[in-house]
């Protein structure tokens, strides 16, 4: 299981937040969610398959804990996408805003050209042509 796929579900993200505080049992984790204990177990199994959590058996109980090192791919992606803020400044995108302005201009220009050129218009079906 891919780390990013495991993090896609909001319930699993909440479980990771709870486990970031410290190890916990399934019964304790399920008490904080409106889903059944077996459903929480299935979510924890997905997180374990992705390597994000580990399970320690203590007698009849299974305690899950977060593996923070498994989040390295996520941290790497985030650091690629957002540059380090300088002295309290907001994070910036890895490209200039003018690039998006140019894209917006091109999209608008292409839309205007298509609306003004009858050859590129899609005919509206009528009862006779349908």
Gyration radius over CA: 25 Å
- CATH superfamily descriptor of the domain at 3-71: Winged helix-like DNA-binding domain superfamily/Winged helix DNA-binding domain
Tally of helical runs:
6
| Shape field | elongated
Based on DSSP secondary structure assignment, what is the total number of beta strands? Answer: 3
Percentage of residues in strands = 5-15%
Largest sheet: 3 strands, antiparallel
Give the termini separation.
47 Å
**Strand-and-helix sequence, N→C?**
HHEHHEEHH
Low-confidence segments: none
CATH topology of the domain at 3-71: Arc Repressor Mutant, subunit A
Q: Per CATH, which architecture of the domain at 3-71? A: Orthogonal Bundle
Helix content range of the residues, please? Answer: 40-55%
User: What class, by secondary structure content?
Assistant: mainly alpha
Mean pLDDT: 82
How are the strands of the largest sheet arranged? 1-3-2
Q: For the record, what CATH class of the domain at 3-71 applies?
A: Mainly Alpha
Defining traits:
single chain, 130 residues, mainly alpha, Arc Repressor Mutant, subunit A, three-stranded antiparallel β-sheet, 51% helix, elongated
Question: How would you portray this structure in words?
Answer:
- The protein is mainly alpha-helical and 130 residues long.
- The protein has a domain of 69 residues: Arc Repressor Mutant, subunit A (Orthogonal Bundle).
- 51% of the residues lie in helices and 11% in strands.
- The protein has six helices and three strands; from the N terminus they run H-H-E-H-H-E-E-H-H.
- The protein has a three-stranded antiparallel beta sheet.
- Strand 2 and strand 3 form a beta hairpin.
- The longest helix has 20 residues.
- The chain is elongated and about 75 Å long.
- The two termini are 47 Å apart.
- The model has no long low-confidence stretch (mean pLDDT 82).
């Amino acid at each position: 299981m891919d780390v990013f796929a495991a993090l896609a579900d909001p319930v699993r993200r909440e479980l990771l937040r709870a486990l970031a505080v410290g190890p916990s049992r399934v019964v304790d984790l399920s008490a904080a969610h409106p889903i059944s204990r077996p459903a929480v177990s299935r979510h924890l199994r997905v997180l374990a398959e992705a390597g994000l959590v580990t399970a320690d058996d203590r007698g009849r109980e299974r305690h899950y804990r977060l593996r923070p090192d498994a989040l390295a791919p996520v941290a790497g992606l985030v650091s690629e996408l957002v540059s380090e803020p300088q002295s309290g400044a907001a994070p910036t995108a890895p490209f200039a805003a003018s690039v998006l302005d140019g894209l917006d201009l091109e999209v608008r220009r292409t839309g205007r050209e298509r609306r003004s050129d009858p050859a590129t218009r899609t005919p509206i079906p009528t009862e006779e042509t349908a």
